[in-house]
Fold this protein.
Amino acid sequence: MSAFILIIFFIRDIIIEFAGKIENNYKSFIGAIRLFLSIIYKD
């Protein structure tokens, strides 16, 4: 369970990083969301 929590924090950092680029790179943010969902469903 702790490993899952670490993954959540890791993905959150990625999303925060992408969120800073939303104005110029909205599609990249969507890609980050898809990656986040794919990791959740893979688990």
Q: What stands out?
A: The chain is about 80% helix and 0% strand. The mean pLDDT is 79.
